[in-house]
């Protein structure tokens, strides 16, 4: 990563840590299963949880660096002065969707907390797993906002050229 590339350090560390833990517990489970014909019960539940963490943390990093999959044809065909409007529309659509995920994810986590629901595999409270969904969606919204500001400033300074 170059020095000028935007950073999302906490999300990068969180994603790397989640991936490392997934690898360690999966490898440990494979070794134990082949040497003892038994397996760790917690590996699937933790792996799925950590995979969700990895996905959303990675999405926040991609949002900050503006490397999400997108179609640039519309951006390239628009006049330079209209690109910030398109950027704002892209941001607004993304934030609307993520805000819905934050709202309903937080509502679900709260309901699971108040109902004292437990996970079927290990019996841990399910809200511990679910609370990360709205928290990481808020991180994505923050990174999208940073990216929007940066893209609009770059458009203003360079006459519309931007880095992909």
From TrEMBL:
Chief location of this protein within or outside the cell: membrane
The keyword Transmembrane helix belongs to this UniProt entry's keyword annotation: yes
Membrane topology: Multi-pass membrane protein
Keywords noted in UniProt: Cell inner membrane, Cell membrane, Membrane, Transmembrane, Transmembrane helix, Transport
Membrane-spanning intervals of the chain: 12-34, 46-64, 85-106, 126-144
Residues annotated as domain Tripartite ATP-independent periplasmic transporters DctQ component: 22-152
Cellular compartment(s): Cell inner membrane
Keyword check for Electron transport: no
Xref: InterPro entries: DctQ, TRAP_DctQ
Coiled-coil portions: none
Family per record: Belongs to the TRAP transporter small permease family.
PANTHER family noted in UniProt: 2,3-DIKETO-L-GULONATE TRAP TRANSPORTER SMALL PERMEASE PROTEIN YIAM
Known function: Part of the tripartite ATP-independent periplasmic (TRAP) transport system.
Assembly: The complex comprises the extracytoplasmic solute receptor protein and the two transmembrane proteins.
Listed name of the protein: TRAP transporter small permease protein
Organism: Oceanisphaera marina
């Amino acid at each position: 990563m170059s020095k000028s590339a935007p950073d999302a350090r906490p999300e990068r560390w969180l994603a790397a840590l989640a991936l490392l833990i997934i690898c360690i517990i999966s490898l440990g489970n494979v070794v134990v299963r082949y040497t003892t014909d038994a397996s760790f019960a917690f590996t699937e539940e933790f792996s799925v949880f950590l995979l969700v963490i990895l996905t959303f943390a990675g999405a926040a990093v991609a949002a900050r660096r503006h490397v999400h999959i997108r179609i640039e044809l519309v951006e390239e065909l628009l006049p330079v002065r209209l690109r910030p409007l398109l950027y704002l529309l892209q941001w607004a659509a993304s934030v609307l969707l993520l805000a819905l995920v934050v709202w309903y994810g937080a509502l679900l986590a709260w309901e699971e907390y108040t109902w004292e629901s437990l996970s079927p595999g290990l019996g841990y409270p399910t809200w511990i797993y679910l609370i990360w969904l709205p928290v990481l969606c808020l991180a994505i919204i923050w990174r999208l906002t940073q990216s929007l500001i940066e893209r609009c400033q770059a458009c203003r300074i360079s006459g519309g050229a931007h880095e992909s």
